[in-house]
């Protein structure tokens, strides 16, 4: 069982890490970023609705609180996060690995938002240091240049995506609706896709540009979209739900810190992206911040793991 969980964990990290490369590849082909994200979740949302109908006895949200949870998920976890991420990755200086590293800050930001918005949680001095280290890690990856603020815009948008995801995660916990996670994810994907289609139209993105990209390089274009919709979204969330049930939220959060490694490797192999020292250093600083913020949960998880290992040895 332990090796099965480890294998699935690595599969999830590989799939979600390489998703950053698939996004970059589609954007390089000329896909309009927000429309690209919307179409991805058109496909993934339908698949997840079918999955929710199959595995739960409540495939449709009920009541104000449950629909409010879906609205938060659609707005922040899907539309906000992916719109900012896809636009940010469209900047040439933002590599797949750099985007993945900045997104790995999400667990730290989630804890920080929780300390503010959830009254029963507090952030101590060590936790504050960890949060600050996480923010420093982002600055290390792309040092601010006061003379060229637009030069930092791409990574700032990716950071905004991490903020949107963290804020949405905490809001769903604050609402505390008794809604199966599969149903919540499925309807959030559908609602988020609709919001992104509206935003895409408002930005003046042209569906013709997406069709032109497909016609110019059909294998690469369809492959990028299919990978994001089927592998990163549908398959990825199936594995995520399975591991969340088996490992719990602390261990599954660690996927965020393995995914950048796969993003770097796949980006180097497929897109010839070079990983600079700043990206590596920023990643290490963010990991230290995560450990400080999550130190109590990590300590409890380690004790549980040690106890289960000792019991199995007996």
From TrEMBL:
Membrane-topology annotation of the record: Multi-pass membrane protein
This protein's record includes keyword Transmembrane: yes
Any one GO cellular component localisation term in the record: membrane
Subcellular location: Membrane
Transmembrane segments: 34-55, 67-88, 94-116, 123-141, 153-172, 184-204, 224-242, 254-271, 277-293
Name the UniProt record assigns to this protein: DMT family transporter
Main location: membrane
Pfam families in the record: EamA (PF00892)
Ranges where the EamA domain occurs: 6-141, 153-293
The entry's keywords: Membrane, Transmembrane, Transmembrane helix
SUPFAM superfamilies attached to this UniProt entry: Multidrug resistance efflux transporter EmrE (SSF103481)
